[in-house]
C-alpha cells in the first residue's frame, strides 16, 4: 500500500508477518467507520488510510473487534477551538481551548489533519494524536475512561494496576522535578491521559521506554501483544 508507505512511518518498521494482519484491520476499519470533513476539509483516501493505518496498529494482535461503540471520525484541517461548558450550580461558564484531537465518550473521535500528519510522519518523537485518541477508545471499552482498559486475561489485572499506578506516580514526581523524558508530561493530567501518552511512546520510543521504564514496557507489550522495540 503506497499510501501507508508514504504517510505512516511506523508501517515501514512493521515486521513483514504483521503486514497482512494490518491490511485486514484497515479494511474493516474503513468499512465500519465514517469520516466527516469539518471546516471545509474534503475527506480523501489519503486521510482515511493514514488515520486507519495508525489506529489499526493498536489492534494488530488483539481481539477482532474494531473500536466498537462509535462510528464517526471528524477531521478538521488544523487545530480547532473547542468549547468546554462547566456548570457550577446556576452559573454556567464556557472555556475555549485549542485542540489537536479528542475522543468523546461513546461518541466520535475528532482530529486535526495537520496534527495527524505531524505525528505520523515522525515516528520517534512520542507524539501521535491518532494513537493517543484511539488508545482512549480502547480505555473506554469497559465504559469508564480511567487508564484501565479491558486486558487480554483476567490474571493480568493485578499487575497492571500495580505497575500503572506506580509509573503514574513516578511521572508526577518527575514532572514536578522537571526531569521528565520518554513519556510526555501531559500524562500527568490523569491516569487516562497517562495510558494514552504511554501508548504513543510505546510505539514511537519503545527502546527508550524499555530501557528507562521497563515495567511499563512489559505491561504495554502484554496488552498490545506487540514488541515494537524489536522492530528497530
Ligand atoms: Zn487524551
As laid out across the biggest beta sheet, the strand order is: 1-2-6-5
Largest sheet: 4 strands, mixed
Q: What is the total number of structural domains?
A: 1
> Roughly what percent helix?
40-55%
**How many distinct helices?**
10
| Element order: H for helix, E for strand | HHHEHEEEEEHHHHHH
Task: Give the N-terminus to C-terminus distance in angstroms.
Answer: 21 Å
Which segments are poorly predicted (pLDDT under 50) over 5 or more consecutive residues? Answer: none
Which radius of gyration do the C-alpha atoms yield? 17 Å
> Hey, roughly how much beta strand do the residues contain?
5-15%
- The total strand number stands at 6
By CATH, the superfamily comes out as: Collagenase (Catalytic Domain)
Protein topology:
Layout: H1 2-7, H2 9-13, H3 19-32, E1 34-37, H4 45-55, E2 72-76, E3 80-88, E4 91-99, E5 101-103, E6 109-112, H5 113-121, H6 129-139, H7 157-177, H8 191-204, H9 206-212, H10 214-224
Parallel strand pairs: 1-2, 2-6
Antiparallel strand pairs: 3-4, 5-6
Helix pairs in contact: 3-4, 4-5, 6-8, 9-10
This protein binds zinc ion.
Zinc ion binds at residues 132, 136, 193, 196.
Question: Explain this structure to me?
Answer:
This protein is of the alpha/beta class and 232 residues long. It has a single domain, classed as 3-Layer(aba) Sandwich (Collagenase (Catalytic Domain)). It is built from ten helices and six strands, in the order αααβαβββββαααααα. Strands 1-2-6-5 form a four-stranded mixed β-sheet. The protein has a two-stranded antiparallel ribbon with strand order 3-4. β3 (80-88) and β4 (91-99) form a beta hairpin. α3 packs across α4 (45-55), α4 crosses α5 and α6 (129-139) packs across α8. The radius of gyration is 17 Å and the shape is globular. The mean pLDDT is 92. Zinc ion is lined by residues 132, 136, 193, 196.
Amino acid at each position: 500500500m503506497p499510501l501507508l508507505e508514504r504517510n505512516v512511518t511506523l508501517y515501514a518498521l512493521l515486521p513483514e508477518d504483521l503486514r497482512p494482519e494490518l491490511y485486514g484491520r484497515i479494511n474493516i476499519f474503513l468499512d465500519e467507520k465514517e469520516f466527516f470533513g469539518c471546516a471545509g476539509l474534503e475527506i480523501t483516501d489519503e486521510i482515511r488510510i493514514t488515520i486507519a493505518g495508525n489506529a489499526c496498529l493498536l489492534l494488530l494482535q488483539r481481539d477482532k473487534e474494531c473500536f466498537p461503540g462509535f462510528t464517526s471520525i471528524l477531521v478538521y484541517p488544523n487545530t480547532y477551538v473547542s468549547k468546554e461548558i462547566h456548570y457550577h450550580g446556576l452559573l454556567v461558564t464556557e472555556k475555549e481551548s485549542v485542540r489537536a484531537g479528542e475522543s468523546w465518550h461513546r461518541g466520535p473521535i475528532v482530529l486535526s489533519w495537520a496534527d495527524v500528519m505531524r505525528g505520523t510522519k515522525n515516528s520517534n518523537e512520542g507524539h501521535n494524536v491518532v494513537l493517543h485518541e484511539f488508545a482512549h477508545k480502547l480505555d473506554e471499552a469497559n465504559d469508564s475512561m480511567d487508564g484501565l482498559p479491558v486486558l487480554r486475561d483476567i490474571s493480568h489485572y493485578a499487575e497492571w494496576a500495580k505497575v500503572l499506578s506506580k509509573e503514574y506516580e513516578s511521572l508526577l514526581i518527575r514532572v514536578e522535578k522537571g526531569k521528565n523524558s520518554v513519556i510526555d508530561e501531559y500524562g500527568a493530567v490523569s491516569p487516562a491521559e497517562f495510558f494514552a501518552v504511554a501508548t504513543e511512546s510505546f510505539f514511537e520510543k519503545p527502546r527508550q521506554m524499555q530501557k528507562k521504564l521497563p515495567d511499563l514496557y512489559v505491561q504495554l507489550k502484554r496488552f498490545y501483544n506487540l514488541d515494537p522495540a524489536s522492530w528497530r
